[in-house]
Amino acid sequence: MTNSVVDSSLLWIRGIRIPASQYKRIKSRLEQNLQGEPSRTDYLELAQLELRKQNYGLAMEAVEEALQLDPTDAESQLLYANILELTGEWDRAKSVYRTNIMLHPVSAQGYREYGRFLLSMDHDDSIPHIRSLVLKGLELDPKDSYAHTILAEIYWKLSQKSQAELHLEIGLRYLQDEPWIHQRRASILAELGRFAESIHHYKQALKEDKKNIYIKHQLQRVEWLLKQKTT
User: Fold this and answer.
1) Dihedral over alpha carbons 87, 90, 91, 93 (to 10 degrees)
2) TPR repeat positions in this chain (predicted)?
3) What whole-number distance in Å separates Cα of residue 154 and Cα of residue 187?
4) Residue 2: what pLDDT?
5) pLDDT tens, residue by residue, 133-178
6) Which one, 10, 127, 176, 182, has least CB within 10 Å?
7) Please, are residues 98 and 120 in contact by the beta-carbon 8 Å criterion?
8) Domain limits of the chain?
9) Which of 60, 70, 61, 10 is CA-nearest to residue 40?
10) Above 70 in pLDDT, residue 5?
């Protein structure tokens, strides 16, 4: 996975609470930086900060400022697409994701994010196309654990269980300790009936967001399934 300000963490981080004092301190620092010499990186960090407070309008304003500085910047485009996705503007998000891979055909993250977005739309007839996008990203970055996890989900939807399990194992080989990867792995492992492993990854995800009700419910569901399986 690339070391980038922009990542699928944006889709996760919006739900993680941030103390008001920490938010104010970070925002003050960024605003001071931007008053001096505005930089794309500071605008992107500000956008991510506003997402954590679910201030979508302010997040959008910040990323639009970044795009004013560099309209074709890959990171800014992906962040823009992420925010559009989060706010339900899916047609615009799709257009930006598509434009991103056209302008940056060697960006592994761009292919992965576009594929992840299309998969979230749950259009089964486009699954082969989504698979080709994620595979293209993996050609560019074979060690992207998150892309392998997404590909495992795709193969599961295609009823290719052995391929799904293969990419879960490859993803585990390069696994980074990121909550959004743990949550996605946990979901697929549960579908495959590998409940103990699923529980482990849900617990890892909860370490980053202890109050996440959705993950808690999923964890409880899988724990119940494991209990039923072993009794």
Assistant:
1) 80
2) 40-73
3) 13
4) 35
5) 999 999 999 999 999 999 999 999 999 999 999 999 999 999 877 7
6) 176
7) no
8) 1-75
9) 70
10) no
